[in-house]
Write a structure and sequence with these properties.
The complex is a heterodimer. Chain A is built from 13 helices and eleven strands. Chain A is α/β, with parallel strands linked by helices. In chain A, strand 6, helix 7 and strand 7 form a beta-alpha-beta unit. The N terminus of chain A is likely disordered. In chain B, helix 5 crosses helix 7, helix 15 runs antiparallel to helix 24 and helix 22 packs across helix 24. The chains are: A alpha/beta, B mainly alpha. The interface between A and B is large, with 52 and 74 residues. Bound molecules: sodium ion (NA) (2 copies). The site of one sodium ion has 6 residues of chain B, from loops.
Chain lengths: ~325, ~625
């Protein structure tokens, strides 16, 4: 326990260097984990900028600072400065952010970037800032779209009927899977592997890198490219933290975080492809399923969502009008 | 366990206690009802999913919320009954006049911590109103009940403090005010000469722990000292970490398996199992001791609560060994050693907690723990036979012919529970966590239908006891998580991990293994087991995998080392618990206990350096 004393001795006095805490729920994996890849890019960008030596970012992967819902609340309060995560977690704070979780809303990540550049991000960013004091300073990609990994081949909605598919505990995604035909089963991430193995679950929906990293392919051998969800990756920053910075620093820092996010996009697309190849190598059958059939069944979800939340309408319309 | 730690003020408590008797009835009732509701939710959810393919989307969120609420009301009841464990050893070395002062300050600190948790939990509920959980339920539903439970805890803490006369209360207040005053003066006038927040936290923790402050409160207070000294962290963060420290579905197995232990005792299964063991092996050489070790093996395979097992087995077998003329001190020592052995027999709270904090498969840990436990059980049984008295010295166990069939039937049904736990999970019916709920259901149904011994009143008492006991365990888990959060903020795990990796790269992995064992024995002894795993598990397990040690193997080693610490004199709280149950002074158990611990330590070294013992079964079972 001798190691315990050393870091504890760091003084309480505020140092001249601005120290930021960046949280991610993913493992500390420099290749497959979006949080770590973003952090590495951010460190590189800071080192190359005129903020080098002025800002230091400490990285906390693996839920070290708590579960995502707590971390985002801490970002809101300014206790944790930054967080890299999908957009869905912010929907718990400001429901309209859940727009991006709607099934078959986007058709690809590049299309998403195009739509965001055309103005489909601004209303959501403003709603979150107003509702919870959190600024999304940059957007990147989750490492791959979400598709269904199952213990049997799924080609169309009939094949999916009645299968117990683990979904994110998120009402929009759960509903999407239900519309696709599955018996959507929200379950804690840590229980998935054993539940798949024992047959408590018939499958799950996730992106390829996560399936490779968590070894879910060991028990479920069919990956159907349903691609029902291209949820964006958000770089959240506490408005309190940004307000602490002098204007020049804030502008430089915002610029840097955007560059780091842009660097992360190409990596995300490459890693998705690579993970699919690895899945095939591990004996998983990758199925180019009837996406159009699934998409038709999920279509009413967006219409119902827009009806319930009219403020989402311009966002959905803009995204639907954007083609690659 | 150590009522001395908080209630040793020597003041007659009768009159004032009556004032909060109604409140205690209320916290008992609320905690037990929430636990029962939780059981119903989990069972309903599994049946809906397995039988009707209609998964219940809100089940996970509701089950966790009910557990957090039940835990804080249960912890309030436990505090009211003076059940909170604290380290009594150093406290007992103080002169008597000092002991009183230390107790008074401790009582005041318990009040401060409880009030702080209550206030900020309610504040957090208010701040998060309008937000939702994953399933879309209101988020504040987790925090308001927690705040109410903590408010009841505050009332009990106030009652315990107010039992003292006003001079003693005033003295405690002055002491605390003086300490805070010195800090504030120093921070204002000589801020550069002041110790860091981290150092203050460490100092506060060591002092309060040695002073006998209940473990959960000492852990929470340490985190709070950091929050206070740092000045920039809002109090709600502390409450948030307390809540989220236990707000996890896999931890549900803790209250449910504890409940199984109490139900098993109430419905007569415990007695039937021991009767059967006495019939089978009781008359061999060292028979009574062999019965004790095997009974602990079986009981551990059913319930998740070690202290419940020790209580059930000890209550029957320690009087029996007294009657047979054995030294009660060595019987209690064997009971305690068996509890260490049983540490890794699934279901086991500490394996669940380690799996939770270090991201390891709980099913895998359960499988990995079986052979190591078998090794230690074999060692203890061998010693029992070798040093045991010949059968003639032991009075034969009286079992009437007519009762024989009943006994076999009863034991068969009891063993059915163990089979159900294993088969239920393997069959794909439910997850390991969910099976714990069905184990409780089995104990209730079997108890009322087969044995006709479990009256509704007795079943209700089991729920009340289980809610208080798991509240106690989960409160310590929550407090340890809040401290772990504060340590993470200071990047202590990071620094310690690098230090350990560097050291081991120079000298070899064996040194890391030995250091880990040492840390867990010492910290398991100081921190009442689970807290040591919560703080050191997430810190050491990644280092171990970096050094190429199989995580499941390493996890089992950590848990056994912690178990040895928990029962090691002079600090180990487990040993004090066993002595209370066996009604033997601790001093009488020290010598035989050191012998047994030596034996278990050798077993642990074998387990640590022969990984196959732990990794074989998980490999075969596909983890
Ligand atoms: Na056990
Ligand atoms: Na047990």
């Amino acid at each position: 326990a001798t190691g315990l004393a050393a870091p504890v001795l760091i003084g309480r006095a505020e140092a001249a260097v601005l120290k930021l805490k960046l949280s991610s729920s993913q493992a500390n994996d420099p290749k497959f984990a979006n949080g770590r890849v973003y952090y590495d890019n951010l460190v590189k960008q800071i080192a190359a900028s005129n903020l080098a030596g002025q800002i230091e970012v400490a990285f906390f992967p693996d839920n070290q600072l708590g579960q995502e819902i707590d971390v985002i609340n801490s970002v809101k309060l300014g206790v944790i400065d930054m967080m890299v995560s999908g957009s869905s977690i912010a929907a718990n704070l400001v429901p309209v952010v859940g727009t991006y979780d709607l099934g078959y809303l986007f058709s690809s990540f590049p299309q998403q970037t195009k739509a965001f550049d055309a103005g489909a991000a601004a209303p959501i960013e403003q709603a979150l800032l107003k509702g919870s004091n959190i600024r999304i300073i940059a957007w990147a990609y989750n490492f791959g779209s979400r598709s269904v990994l199952a213990r049997k081949a799924v080609n169309n909605p009939d094949d999916l009927a009645g299968l117990k598919i683990r979904t994110l505990p998120n009402p929009v995604i759960t509903e999407c899977l239900r519309l696709m035909g599955a018996a959507a089963t929200p379950m804690a991430f840590g229980e998935i592997y054993a539940a798949l193995q024992a047959g408590v679950l018939d499958g799950l929906e996730h992106d390829p890198p996560t399936i490779v990293a968590s070894k879910f392919f060991e028990t479920a051998k069919f990956y159907s490219l349903t691609q029902h969800n291209f949820s964006p990756l958000a770089i959240y920053c506490s408005e309190n933290t940004l307000n602490r910075m002098p204007t020049a620093t804030r502008e430089a820092f915002t610029d840097i975080t955007r560059k780091a996010a842009a660097d992360t996009r190409a990596h995300g697309l490459a890693v998705e492809k690579e993970a699919l190849v690895q899945l095939k190598d591990k004996g998983v059958t990758v199925i180019d399923c009837d996406r159009e059939a699934f998409r038709k069944r999920v279509l009413p979800q967006s219409d119902a969502f827009v009806k319930a939340r009219p403020e989402a309408k311009p966002v959905v319309d803009l995204i639907r009008a954007t083609s690659v | 366990m150590s009522e001395a730690a908080i209630a040793s003020s020597g003041v007659d408590s009768g009159a004032r206690r009556r004032a909060t008797a109604a409140l205690l009835w209320a916290t008992d009732t609320v905690a037990a009802s929430l636990l029962a509701a939780d059981l119903a939710v989990v069972i309903y959810s599994v049946l809906a999913r397995s039988l009707f393919t209609a998964p219940v989307e809100w089940a996970d969120d509701v089950a966790r919320g009910l557990m957090v609420a039940s835990a804080f009301f249960g912890a309030a009841s436990a505090l009211a009954r003076g059940e909170n464990p604290g380290v009594v050893f150093f406290h007992s070395l103080l002169p008597e006049a000092w002991q009183d002062a230390v107790d008074d300050v401790g009582a005041a600190l318990v009040l401060v911590v409880a009030a702080y948790v209550a206030f900020h939990a309610i504040e957090l509920g208010w701040i998060t109103s309008g937000q939702t959980t994953g399933a879309g339920l209101p988020l504040q539903l987790t925090f308001y009940p927690m705040g109410l439970g903590a408010a009841c805890m505050t009332a009990f803490a106030a009652e315990i403090l107010l039992e003292r006369n006003w001079q003693r209360i005033l003295r405690a207040v002055i002491i605390l005010a003086a300490i805070s005053g010195v800090f504030l003066l120093g921070d204002t006038f000589v801020p550069d000469a002041m110790p860091s927040s981290g150092m203050l936290m460490l100092l506060g923790f060591v002092i309060t722990l040695a002073g006998g402050l209940p473990i959960g409160f000492a852990l929470a207070l340490a985190a709070l000292i950091f929050v206070w000294a740092e000045g920039s962290l809002p109090g709600v963060i502390f409450a948030q970490q307390m809540a989220r420290g236990i707000d996890n579905f896999v931890l549900l197995a803790i209250p449910f398996f504890i409940l199984v232990g109490y139900l098993m005792e109430a419905n007569g299964m415990s007695v039937r199992l021991i009767e059967l063991l006495q019939h089978l092996v009781g008359r061999m050489r060292g028979g009574l001791n062999v019965v004790m070790v095997s009974a602990m093996v079986l009981f551990s395979g059913i319930s998740g609560s070690k202290m419940a097992d020790v209580a059930a087995v000890g209550a029957v077998l320690i009087p029996a060994s007294r009657k047979s003329g054995q030294n009660p001190g060595s019987s209690v020592a064997l009971l305690a050693a068996s509890a260490v052995m049983a540490e890794t027999i699934p279901p086991c709270i500490n394996l669940i907690i380690l799996g939770f904090v270090a991201n390891l498969s709980i099913g895998g840990l359960f499988a990995a723990g079986l052979l190591p436990a078998a090794l230690m059980a074999a060692a203890l049984i061998a010693v029992s036979i070798f040093f045991g008295k010949p059968s003639s010295a032991v009075p034969p166990v009286l079992v009437e012919r007519a009762a024989m069939g009943r006994m076999w039937l009863g034991a068969g049904v009891s063993l059915g529970l163990i089979a159900m736990i294993f088969i239920g999970f393997k069959s794909g019916f439910a997850t390991a966590t969910e099976i714990s709920a069905f184990a409780s259901l089995y104990a209730i149904v079997v108890g009322s239908l087969m044995f006709r011994e479990l009256t509704p009143a007795a079943a209700w008492r089991s729920f009340v006891h289980a809610a208080a006991r798991s509240g106690l365990v989960l409160f310590i888990v929550a407090a340890a998580q809040s401290l772990a959060f504060v340590l993470t903020l200071q990047q202590v795990p990071h620094a310690m991990g690098e230090f350990m990796v560097g050291l081991s790269q120079q000298s070899g992995t064996w040194l890391f293994m030995l250091l880990s064992i040492l840390i867990l024995i010492v910290m398991g002894s100081v921190l009442e087991g689970a807290a040591a795993l919560i703080i050191f598990g997430p810190l050491l397990v990644p280092v171990a995998s970096k050094l190429g040690i199989a995580p499941l193997h390493y996890g089992v080693v950590l848990v056994i080392a912690m178990g040895i610490g928990l029962f090691a004199p002079p600090l180990g709280l487990g040993l004090y618990g066993a002595c209370l149950i066996g009604k033997v002074p601790v001093e009488q158990t020290v010598r035989p206990m050191l012998g047994y611990l030596g034996l278990l330590f050798v077993c642990l070294l074998i387990i640590a350096f022969v990984p196959a013992i732990s990794t074989l079964l998980p490999k075969l079972m596909g983890y």
